[in-house]
Amino acid sequence: MSLHDHLQSLGIASRGPQFRLFVLIEGSAHKELIARQEFHEAQLRPLWRTEDRPELEKHAPYLSLVEAHSDFDAWLGSIQAKTRWTAIYSLLTLDQLATQLRRFSKFQNEDRRFFLRLGDPNSLHLYLASIAEDATTVGRFFANGGIDEFYFHAPEARLSQRVQPLFEQKDVPAPYLDGYLIRINVQEVG
User: Fold this and answer.
1) Into how many domains does the chain fold?
2) Buried b (16+ CB within 10 A) or exposed e, 16-43
3) Where is each DUF4123 domain found (predicted)?
4) Rounded distance, CA 25 to CA 8, Å?
5) What is the pLDDT of residues 105-122, one digit of tens each?
């Protein structure tokens, strides 16, 4: 089953054909990831600049466009159950989405610099929880409507959750609300 088919079986699908499916995954999440992306000629962007530090390539977060019914889609579907990854539905192009995510990948506190592990769904999930009460930051993170939804999948942490911005949503039951985010736990099959 392909990744597109898997997401559809969970009830997770884009709201229209204008939304593209992207997957965000750390190079270290699966030993064949980088080679498979290259082999299947998947469109991808590393979110870290590793030109001067090639040893970081295997740990860098990679953003890939997942074309439906492609060989890469099928391969991702075959590894999804045992691998940490985040699905993103977005109107943005691959380059626009990579730039958007990079904006939120690093921050400075006084004289210390930090990198957020965007490729790790647990870390990205915690980051979104930390900004949930700030409507402006949530809006900016979701590119003011350019990003529709995140689906976090981390089997070892039992994380299987959809997150959408609250903006323009109607009749959302209170248990799903978290500040300006809607969180929906997804029951994995199998």
Assistant:
1) 1
2) eeebbbbbbbbbbbbeebbebbeebebe
3) 21-134
4) 20
5) 777 778 877 677 788 899
**What gap in Å lies between CA 185 and CA 187, rounded to an integer?**
7
Residue 190, pLDDT score: 47
Domain enclosing residue 24, as ranges: 3-185
Q: How far is CA 66 from CA 4, 7, 37, 89, in A?
A: 8, 12, 10, 10
Within-domain flag for 9:
yes
pTM over 0.85: yes
Token pair belonging to 184: 């929906």
What residues contact residue 69 under an 8 Å CB cut-off, 6+ apart?
2, 4
Residue 147 included in any domain:
yes
| Cβ neighbours for 80, distance < 8 A, ≥ 6 positions apart | 3, 6, 153
Contacts (Cβ under 8 Å, ≥6 apart) of 59:
26, 27, 28
Residues facing residue 164 across a β-bridge: 182
190 located within any domain: no
Per residue in 64-80, pLDDT (tens digit) is 999 999 999 999 999 99
